[in-house]
């Protein structure tokens, strides 16, 4: 028997592909190095950050991390951020899910107009709504409280959640609803027992985006909750530069404690974020 030798074809790499990978590598290198530079300087004294900023911290100093919790009470700010961002996510998913259920499963007059209004509201910058929202917050007497930031962030993220969830729910077959009604389900049971479990990937994607946006919302935090007892962690960073402007080691530590946990969480949930980019396609 004659042995048949498979002929290997030479691998051809297109110049365009090489160029794309070079650009992506350079972008990733600059991003990773910036994060490494911050973390590395967090283990140095303030004078070493100024004089030897680009050297490795072979003799790490932990005083910056001790001062971060004792001197500026970064743990309290972490707790405030978790309370406000977590509450925002829960409210957005609750009201956004119910609104998405109505828009995706019911046909009524003005439905397309509501979708158009929702799309148009995404074009309105947050800066344009600060004055009326702040007046409402003052009238409700919730300035410098948890609700003073939770309510504006909930309202600001509702549109995104409604569009994402409505787009996913519109793909669910109507036969499931008919079977549920035959079994005796009402509208609330249909939403909680059937539509919500099926739409769980879309709810997870919306929750991740809303939490990250709420956690990083410095603009709203500086306006609605500037009191130290309810100050979120992003607002704390802006105040370190004024109160402890010369302590660059403490500033690097605060930035590291703010950003690194989010990056670690992102590594574990990135597949859900990638799903969220496609599962929210809206069918008008």
From TrEMBL:
| Swiss-Prot/TrEMBL keywords | Cell membrane, Membrane, Transmembrane, Transmembrane helix, Transport
Q: What membrane topology does the UniProt entry give?
A: Multi-pass membrane protein
The entry's protein name is Carbohydrate ABC transporter permease
Q: Where in the cell is it found?
A: Cell membrane
Q: Which family does it belong to?
A: Belongs to the binding-protein-dependent transport system permease family.
Q: Which InterPro entries match?
A: MetI-like, MetI-like_sf
In terms of Gene3D superfamilies, this protein maps to: MetI-like (1.10.3720.10)
Which biological process terms from the Gene Ontology are attached to this UniProt entry?
Answer: transmembrane transport
Transmembrane annotation, as ranges? 18-39, 82-103, 115-134, 146-169, 190-215, 248-269
Q: What is its main location?
A: membrane
Q: What GO cellular component term, any one, is given?
A: plasma membrane
Superkingdom of this entry's organism? Bacteria
The ABC transmembrane type-1 domain, residue ranges:
78-269
């Amino acid at each position: 028997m004659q042995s048949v030798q498979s002929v290997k074809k030479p691998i051809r790499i297109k110049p365009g592909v090489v160029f794309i990978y070079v650009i992506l590598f350079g972008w990733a290198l600059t991003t990773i190095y910036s994060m490494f530079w911050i973390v590395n300087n967090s283990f140095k004294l303030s004078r070493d950050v100024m004089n030897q900023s680009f050297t490795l911290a072979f003799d790490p100093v932990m005083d910056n991390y001790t001062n971060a919790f004792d001197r500026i009470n970064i743990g309290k700010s972490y707790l405030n951020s978790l309370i406000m961002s977590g509450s925002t996510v829960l409210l957005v998913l609750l009201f956004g899910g119910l609104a998405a259920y109505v828009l995706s499963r019911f046909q009524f007059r003005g439905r397309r107009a509501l979708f158009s209004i929702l799309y148009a509201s995404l074009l309105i910058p947050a800066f344009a709504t600060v004055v009326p929202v702040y007046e409402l917050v003052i009238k409700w007497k919730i300035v410098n409280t948890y609700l003073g930031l939770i309510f504006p962030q909930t309202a600001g993220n509702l549109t995104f959640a409604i569009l994402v969830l409505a787009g996913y729910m519109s793909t669910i077959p109507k036969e499931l609803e008919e079977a549920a009604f035959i079994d005796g389900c009402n509208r609330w049971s249909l939403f909680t027992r059937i539509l919500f479990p099926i739409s769980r990937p879309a709810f997870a994607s919306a929750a991740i985006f809303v939490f990250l946006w709420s956690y990083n919302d410095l603009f709203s935090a500086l306006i609605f909750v500037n009191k130290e007892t309810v100050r979120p962690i992003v607002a704390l960073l802006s105040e370190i530069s004024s109160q402890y402007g010369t302590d660059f080691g403490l500033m690097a530590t605060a930035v590291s404690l703010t950003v690194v946990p989010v990056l670690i969480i992102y590594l574990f949930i990135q597949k859900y974020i990638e799903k969220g980019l496609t599962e929210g396609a809206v069918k008008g």
